[in-house]
Amino acid sequence: MEKYIGIIGAMDEEVSALIQHLTDPEPIAAPFRDLPMFKGRLRDRSVIIARCGIGKVNAALCSQFMIDRFPLQALINTGVAGGISPLLELGDLVISANAIHHDFDTRNFGYDRGTIPSMNVRSFPADPQIQKEALQIAKHIMGAERVHLGLVVSGDQFVSSTDQKNEIVQFFPDALCVEMEGAAIAQAAYVNRIPYVIIRSISDKADNTAPDDFDAYLDKVIPKLNEVVRELVSTI
Ligand code: ADE
């Protein structure tokens, strides 16, 4: 039996055009409030696309529901992110090599920031093969200089000041971008042994102008991101 590729985005803007591209779309009734989810075919692959809502709890709930309900070959988290690395420009694309919860903090018990003590895990590695495919596809569509592979950090905060951003950089100097769901989806994928990747387009630089930039760039950066996601689906 063909397995499904799960695609999760937090906001309508991040998944609605992908849902519109589905052949034979079929809504799926989820047990939770406000979790729109569709089954269908995208680039001749069976996919499930969900709008999970903002934040790590929503992302984890949605991931686990999808995993329990459908045999999944892979999980893709798509959406926008705030640029942390100075190498990133608005509209650039980030592909996760790994993901960490930047706001998971039990340093008082001797753990590094981001480590989940009971699991003794800090960083959730993305699937190497899917990462490679995503990188190749993204470079082809966007141009190599606009595509970056590395660490994505997630937390339940919209990062919108240089102080907040610097605090994250202090603990995670390698972080490329910050968002609010990826590490939760990565963690769900890890415990369920499902390959995953996060693909994010940079909508702001997580600084004092981030809220305005986010509003201005959200719709502008999604089309290229969707192109990459659609192409990636055909290779998994
Ligand atoms: N998603 C997009 N921009 C973000 C930011 N600055 N902080 C958290 N999540 C984001």
Describe the protein in words.
The structure is a single chain. This protein has 236 residues and is of the alpha/beta class. It is globular, with a radius of gyration of 16 Å. Strand 3 (37-42) and strand 4 (45-51) form a beta hairpin. Helix 1 (12-20) runs parallel beside helix 6 (210-233) and helix 3 (128-142) packs across helix 6 (210-233). The protein has helices at residues 12-20, 56-69, 128-142, 162-171, 182-191, 210-233; strands spanning 4-9, 23-27, 37-42, 45-51, 72-83, 93-101, 124-125, 147-154, 175-179, 196-204. It has a single domain (4-233), classed as Nucleoside phosphorylase domain (Rossmann fold, 3-Layer(aba) Sandwich). Bound molecules: adenine (ADE). Residues 80-82, 158-160, 178-180, 203-204, 206, 210, 214 line the site of adenine.
